[in-house]
Q: What sequence folds into this?
């Protein structure tokens, strides 16, 4: 019984160490715990998959910074790989200044896997300050908001963007968002006002907030955290779009074991707490 | 094992370990990483503000291209500095009033559309929701959840009669919502740890791909 009273006094550092090991070991020695694909992830995948080389381009907005890289960067890679494999044209941009670095990193990594021509198959508009003004302005005239792309080239000189005036010329907007500005602003201005079709990828912290908008179909589909990224990666792999490295899938064993250990600690803490209360 | 020769990767690994060292106890390495982060962030923000906001939106159009209309935003911007002069303190109200007025005018109709109209429509029980038994069941649960939660926040009547059990049901829905949010938060934090360990074990030490 002394053991039960000890449960509420497990040293904090022991818990940290246990979680670190539970997360690190499966990264080195993968277990291969299966990942079930949630309906909302599949809906986003199918929305992209229904497009082809003749479709209007997809706009991906990277509204995140390196802090959210483990959750959102795999989404960016998986969605762009799917688009590249299907020859869907991609326009990239960012509402966060640090998002431009994420896009450059992804484009650099993908350039070894796919041969795509800048300005024809994809374009990168870069970052622009002033969220509401940017999103409302893009609803009227994208080249008015982004007269030049990230590299300083006039957007009117890029073949991909010559046929794109505003949201009506974009088949799907996907925002990979870690907070504000992010999916809420895209939903507020691009979807609610201009009826643009919107897909969302968010960090797990924000995921619970997105569900009501999925229910009402204001959001076409959404990916929640590393789990959502892993689901999307699995769908991309199943279709044979890429054989590259899928970092979210690599991390899912660690995620599952980490959760399991936290659940065990919560149960042990509660058992110890109720035992100690009965003893008083 | 294929350790990275890149000094930037080593620096990032060192700073990661400095921050992790806080888990043992507060120490000088952690404080070094923390202060470095704050300093770099502040410097980055200043450079970013100049290059992405002030220069392209004011300096270039006004002083390089000679567009005199930009004097108006310049005057508005200068009004913010009235804060530092007691006699001119009131001038700050001008730009704030403009920003609030413009922002509210743009956002309120869109908010109404996004969060009130469409969400209310989504809560209504329409025949389509009952095309399948499970979607019909979820539609009923959502309706009951919304009404009971709203009644929990209805403070104009004493909690007795039908209001009391309905408000108690609302508490259950609120707790379920908190539980889901907490679960997702745990997932997010573990994801961050996974990201750092992938960097340390992969990019730095080369133990994993």
A:
């Amino acid at each position: 019984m002394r053991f039960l009273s000890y449960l509420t006094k497990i040293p904090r550092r022991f818990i940290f160490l246990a979680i670190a090991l539970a997360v690190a070991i499966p990264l080195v020695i993968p277990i291969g715990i299966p990942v079930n694909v949630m309906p909302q992830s599949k809906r986003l995948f199918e929305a992209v998959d229904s497009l082809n080389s003749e479709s209007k381009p997809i706009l991906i907005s990277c509204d995140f910074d390196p802090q959210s890289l483990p959750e959102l960067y795999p989404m960016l890679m998986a969605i762009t790989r799917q688009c590249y494999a299907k020859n869907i044209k991609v326009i990239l941009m960012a509402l966060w200044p640090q998002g431009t670095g994420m896009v450059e990193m992804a484009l650099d990594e993908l350039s070894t896997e796919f041969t795509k021509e800048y300005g024809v198959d994809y374009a990168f508009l870069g970052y622009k300050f002033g969220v509401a003004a940017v999103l409302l302005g893009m609803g009227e005239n994208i080249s008015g908001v982004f007269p030049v792309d990230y590299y300083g080239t006039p957007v009117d000189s890029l073949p991909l963007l010559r046929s794109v005036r505003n949201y009506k010329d974009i088949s799907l907007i996907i925002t990979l968002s870690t907070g504000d500005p992010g999916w809420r602003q895209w939903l507020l201005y691009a979807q609610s006002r201009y009826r643009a079709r919107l897909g969302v990828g968010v960090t797990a912290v924000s995921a619970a907030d997105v569900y009501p908008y999925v229910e009402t179909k204001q959001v076409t589909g959404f990916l929640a955290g590393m789990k959502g990224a892993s689901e999307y990666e699995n769908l991309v792999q199943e279709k044979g779009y890429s054989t590259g490295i899928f970092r979210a899938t690599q991390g899912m064993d660690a995620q599952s074991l980490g959760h399991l250990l936290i659940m065990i600690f919560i149960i042990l803490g509660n058992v110890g707490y109720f035992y100690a209360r009965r003893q008083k | 094992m294929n350790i990275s020769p890149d000094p930037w990767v080593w620096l990032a690994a060192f700073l990661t370990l400095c921050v992790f060292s806080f888990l043992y106890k507060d120490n000088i390495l952690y404080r070094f990483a923390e202060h470095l982060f704050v300093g770099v962030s502040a410097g980055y923000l200043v450079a970013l503000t100049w290059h992405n906001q002030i220069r392209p939106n004011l300096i270039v159009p006004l002083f390089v291209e000679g567009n005199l209309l930009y004097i108006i935003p310049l005057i508005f911007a200068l009004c913010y500095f009235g804060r530092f002069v007691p006699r001119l303190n009131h001038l700050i109200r001008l730009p704030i009033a403009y920003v609030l007025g413009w922002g509210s005018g743009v956002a309120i109709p869109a908010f109404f559309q996004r969060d009130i109209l469409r969400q209310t429509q989504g809560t209504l029980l329409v025949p389509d929701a009952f095309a399948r038994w499970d979607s019909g069941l979820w539609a009923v649960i959502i309706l009951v959840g919304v009404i009971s939660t709203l009644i929990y926040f209805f403070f104009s009547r004493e909690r007795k009669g039908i209001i009391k059990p309905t408000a108690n049901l609302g508490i259950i829905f609120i707790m379920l919502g908190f539980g889901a949010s907490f679960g997702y938060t745990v997932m997010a934090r573990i994801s961050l740890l996974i990201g750092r360990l992938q960097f340390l074990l992969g990019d730095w030490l080369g133990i994993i791909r």
About this structure: The mean pLDDT of chain B is 92. The first helix of chain B runs from residue 7 to 20. Residues 124-209 of chain B form one domain. The radius of gyration of chain B is 28 Å.
